[in-house]
Write a structure and sequence with these properties.
alpha+beta; D-amino Acid Aminotransferase, Chain A, domain 1; 2 domains; six-stranded antiparallel sheet; 4 helices; 8 strands; about 20% helix
Length: about 160
């Protein structure tokens, strides 16, 4: 494991996919708490796509490390007919803490034209995952393809 971490610390993500925001970040190892549901499973990953500081869509990644699938909903938790990178999962349970999660996502996104805010809800506590400015390095394709244009038009540049 030490050798693997040493190699990772020598890797600058900018050079692999040219994501400019990684260029001047010094690699570090961060260790966070392992989040598990009451059933001992990895929780759903709520990824809020925020446009001009406002959460508009949430993708929910399910069984991320075994049989990954993804659902995409609007912020009212209506399932949308969208697939991106992983196969569609179908309806997912609305988290009890959705209003709090949306509030946190909006606050974190408030300074950005576009970002994706990743959060977890475990035992009614909200945990921060990451802020991403170019999910999938910008290479993930939407199905239907029209979603790419629709979401892009939501960004004020």
């Amino acid at each position: 494991m030490y050798k693997d971490l040493t190699l990772r610390l020598q890797n600058n993500f900018y050079f692999s996919l040219r994501e400019g925001h990684y260029k001047n970040i010094k690699p570090k190892v961060l260790v966070g708490k392992l989040l598990l549901t009451e059933q001992g499973k990895i929780p759903e990953d709520y990824k809020f796509h925020c446009f001009n500081g406002v959460p508009k869509f949430v993708q929910v990644d399910v069984s991320r490390f075994s049989d990954p699938k993804r659902s995409v909903c609007d912020i009212n938790w209506n399932l949308l007919d969208i697939a991106c990178h992983f196969p569609k999962h179908g309806p997912v349970k609305r988290p009890d803490s959705l209003e709090e999660i949306l509030s946190i996502a909006g606050k974190l996104a408030s300074q950005f034209n576009y970002c994706r805010i990743d959060l977890y809800s475990v035992n009614n506590k909200v945990y921060f995952g990451e802020i991403t400015f170019s999910p999938g390095a910008g290479f993930s394709k939407f199905h239907p393809l029209s979603v790419d244009m629709e979401w892009g038009e939501l960004i004020d540049l």
